[in-house]
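Memo to structure team: turn this sequence into structure tokens by end of day. - J.P.
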Amino acid sequence: MWLRHRKNQNILHRAQLLTEEIISFVSTSNTFVPHFHIPLQSGSNKVLKAMRRRYLRELYEERIQWIRKVIPHCCIGVDVIVGFPGETEEDFFGYLSLY
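Reply from structure team:
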């Protein structure tokens, strides 16, 4: 996890490290740009586990919902990996249901 304290700088976090407190801080800050880049990787818990990620889809959804609640104008960037070995069509469509 890294957080740079420089005017108009975005913040990058892994979903499990991005707490409600950090999101709330950014919502009131005049220093940070309201932009989060949160690597989603997959919309399927099965695929996330196969990737050895330390979070589940539900945690990612909770973070996005909180960001939208406290910073409605916030930009959110994501990384998505498709075609992971063993990923099914159903797993793939798990991405789409997040949006």
